[in-house]
Amino acid sequence: MKRIIWAIQAALFYLFTWLVAGLPRSQTIRIGTAIGTFLFNVLHSRRTIAIDNIRQALPFMKRHPLWTGAFETAEEITLATFRNLGISIVEVCRLYHGKGSKVIDSIEVRGGDNLRPAREKKKGLIFIGGHCGNWELMSLSFKKLFNENVWAIVRHQKNPYLNAVVEKMRMSYGNKVIYNKAALKKILSVIKNDGVIGMLADQAVFENNGVLIEFLGRKALANKAPAVIAHKTGVPLVPVFIHREGNRHVLTIHPEHILCGDRTEDGIGRDIQALAHYLEDFVCAHPADWYWVHRRWKRAGQSTLDNGTM
Q1: pTM of this prediction?
Q2: How do residues 186-203 score in pLDDT, each as one tens digit?
Q3: Distances (CA, A) of 191 to 184, 203, 229
Q4: What 3-state DSSP class applies to 278?
Q5: Which of 89, 139, 146, 236 has the smallest number of CB atoms closer than 10 Å to its CB?
Q6: Are 210 and 223 in contact (CB under 8 A)?
Q7: Which residues contact 246 (CB under 8 A, 6 or more apart)?
């Protein structure tokens, strides 16, 4: 019975993406905004989490030199975030059905020259970013923009049929996937062969896998894997982010992040804190382009909604 339900879920997902992909490209913003507004109104728990997260971060963000100043309240940012997510859903549906070339071609790349010195080291590469802007578009665009096949670290869907559909769609753009459970061995193998890893390292982790950092004025647990792997292999860590500007996307590639050189736990903590500052700067400059609906600060000793006290 479970497999029948899974098959129906996968079929409905495919049908939804196919129908959305068939809508006129010129209507992407309008339709995506409507979808995002609908999700804002019906996903009450996620909306509550986002508003609480933003409300607690706002004092820090408003003091930050990169603060946009375009928003005043947490509710305004939350609505804009959901609308951006809705637009991204439409774009990703088009990408998944082979209709996203024009979306990729319209991406403006800033800092593209920062890739060259990192690749010349011949030690592989880790693109490190977060759930920012249309992160799926960013991942799928690397082959066309830079002729790089990226191994994306992803979560395995519980529904095997749905997982197969999503995996096929991702790999059609030259990407390959590494599932996050027991991923280290495969990551090291890719790096050893001068391959490229894409890692979104901005979600909460368990204490044994993370280090405690300051993020947007609050304590958060951050994944220490990027710094540990870089110390072990010498692989360059290159921060990358994508955000929306009107009807187009801007992909920003930073120079390679240079580690502090200290391989102790304290040194790893300093490196992860430094990497978190890239994301912090991004969020303050583009507050509606980050995935606020995630319980980012859970398990870090914060007495907030994201610890399950909703």
Answers
A1: 0.91
A2: 999 999 999 999 999 898
A3: 11, 23, 10
A4: helix
A5: 146
A6: yes
A7: none
